[in-house]
Amino acid sequence: MNTLQEKLQYTFKNEDLLINALTHSSYANEVRNGVSSNERLEFLGDSVLSIIVSEYIYKKFGDLPEGELTKIRASLVCEKSLCLFSREMDLGQYLRLGKGEEKGGGRERDSILADAFEAVLAAIYLDGGFEVAKKHVLRFIKDELYNHNEAETFKDYKTALQEIIQRNPEESVTYILTNETGPDHDKVFEVEVRLNSNTIGRGKGKNKKQAEQFAAKEALQLMGADI
Questions:
Q1: How far apart are CA 122 and CA 112, in angstroms?
Q2: Which positions are catalytic?
Q3: Could you list the pLDDT tens digit for every one of the 227 residues in the chain?
Q4: pTM tops 0.70, yes or no
């Protein structure tokens, strides 16, 4: 638990809350004996996450209308984003799973990882208060919005590039991770996008997804595409 708390950048006063947050229903149902799953914490964490993200983007994007803010929030709190945040902390390896879920690859299942992120957030909130929970969430959210305005951050350059390449069926695009630097909590990823075997763009980001988007953006710029 000490290693996980280092990754969380928070030390629990009541470690039982963290253990509960890591307890999947499959484990609780199998062991029973008064063991509770993380489902109640997940419920609370979902609400805590929503208010933290809503407040942050409300203040950051002061000119955006409600509809655009809703889209940004949805992209930040969706299952895809939350399981990515969990993987950045290697949260899956600390989960308590039932034997069947363990054998079925539960530690890498997106839905389980996303739920665990919310449950751990709730545990931090209950143990340390709102400001501590807010600090925990924002280190992930800020990475997603790293140095980019709302329009650029949420434009899907990969899809735009793929649509161009698909006009020539014999061509194929691949994304290759070429470098990874920095400590576990603050990594920078470097990615190349290749057309067949030729590099046509490079990108850096706080996660692989972001680096791939910026590699695709550079490729589109070099092609003279209207982006």
A1: 15
A2: 46, 118
A3: 889 999 999 999 999 999 999 999 999 999 888 899 999 999 999 999 999 999 999 998 777 788 878 888 988 898 988 999 999 999 999 999 999 999 999 999 999 999 999 999 999 999 999 999 999 999 998 877 654 444 455 567 888 899 899 888 888 899 999 999 988 777 889 999 999 989 999 998 878 888 898 999 999 999 888 76
A4: no
Nearest residue to 139 via CA among 155, 153, 121: 121
